[in-house]
Amino acid sequence: MLILRTVVALSLVAAGTAACSxxxxxxxxxxxxxxxASRASNLAATYAAGRSEPxxxxxxxxRGHPAVDVLHYGLALNWSPKDKELTGTATLAVxxxxxxxxxxxxxxxxxxxxxxxxxxxxxxxxxxxxxLIIPAGKQLTKDTTAAVVIRYHGQPKQAKFDAERPDAxxxxxxxxxxxxxxxxxxxxxxxxxxxxxxxxxxxxxxxxAITVPKGWAGVSSGTFQGKVAQGDTTVYRxxxxxxxxxxxxxxxxDHLTMVKQTGPHGLPLTYWLRAKDRxxxxxxxxxxxxxxxxxxxxxxxxxxxxxxAVIAGNSGMETQQMITMMPGLPADDYAHEYAHQWFGDSVTxxxxxxVWLNEGMAMFLQMLYFAENDPRSLPxxxxxxxxxxxxxxxxxxxxGPPGHYNKRAFDSPNVYMDPAVMLQEIRKQVGDKKFFTxxxxxxxxxxxxxxxxxxxxxxxxxxxxxxxTALIDRWLDSKxxxxx
Length: 484
Ligand SMILES: [Zn+2]
Prior knowledge:
Blueprint: H1 5-12, H2 28-31, H3 43-46, E1 68-80, E2 85-96, E3 100-106, E4 112-118, E5 121-122, E6 126-128, E7 131-140, E8 145-154, E9 159-160, E10 170-175, E11 181-184, E12 204-213, E13 217-220, E14 223-230, E15 233-244, E16 251-254, E17 257-262, E18 268-273, H4 278-285, H5 288-299, E19 307-311, E20 316-317, E21 323-325, H6 331-339, E22 347-349, H7 356-373, H8 380-399, H9 414-430, H10 432-445, E23 449-451, H11 453-464, H12 469-477
Parallel strand pairs: 1-12, 18-19, 19-21, 22-23
Antiparallel strand pairs: 1-2, 2-8, 3-7, 4-5, 4-8, 6-7, 9-10, 10-11, 11-16, 12-15, 13-16, 14-15, 17-18, 20-21
The protein binds zinc ion.
């Protein structure tokens, strides 16, 4: 997610020079699983890249179900702006991660379930609040797969989230007066619009088809597969062949048009925006190839086969292969969300305890990008020094240490700024060359996986030859700013 501008402005530029200001069942057939019930045993092979080892989340244990490993989501969604109604068929390829007799998913109690099948046989689910408990009709021993199909409809609504950040107090599917819709959902909120195992440790592959009225567009994460007119509607198709966590899936339905551009080494990029946003955003969007090339120089190859941005919502979010950006954000916020494609999207924290693995890296790179590309910037070392002396201690006091943030402080500036200073400390210890080799190696060697502090610390040691465990623990756990 982007950092609130007021926080970063204090450090980036010399006093008196304000940083850029910014406030913060149509199409169903193609989405049916390739396997019919009789071929369900092939699901594990077909969607092998979607395999995860889900764990309970220490911050949000009520979300997500460690017995469930969704390998693939096929979502055929119809959005009616007039009725503000979503109609969906979700086809999930599920692996039992533990022995279980049911498939429990997160799914908004507001949405009506019209029918469920497991391996082609009807099932009657139980609903408890925002949980959907589907009896499997048999014992699913560990590693057994099942094809679960859920048909549903209703008027989605955002979920309230007890957070201090103003742009995170509501999660999930937001509907506007004009019938447009945007889903932003870190740390969870996918459950407000599709049945899911809504936690970061269960990554999965996706095929999403969004049907909207003619003149509208439906944008999601992944690579755009094209659109097809069907009567007075249009179907937009999106494919994610790389595993993705639920919080990184976007949904935007609006009067959007597409602009194409080519990034480094032929990387296809698409930008989606309303006519009224073109003037204010297109020039910044067109800096994407430059920003991605700058990141590739430091982090190695961009981890996905396509990228892009959709201008929508009230924040900036690293939704996978298609960042979601509110109108008017400056280039360094784009650098932040693109940096997340390596740190957060491709390599994802196993639990929300380690959200610093996302935000610390993205913030470090955002500030470095700003320092190297914006003439108003202070030198990078001075930016870091400003954070260390001016903010780090206050942020720890207010929000907790970045490795153990206070619960209401989800995604507060402490998990951005303090770990960014830590990264600069590591850089000082090992030198530029080893530091960037370590950083790019972290992203490249762990592509498509979930990781945590222990594996990062081990990686730093393996990659640089220096054991910096004590330094890392100090910077993540200390209630006051470490002296070194
Ligand atoms: Zn971020």
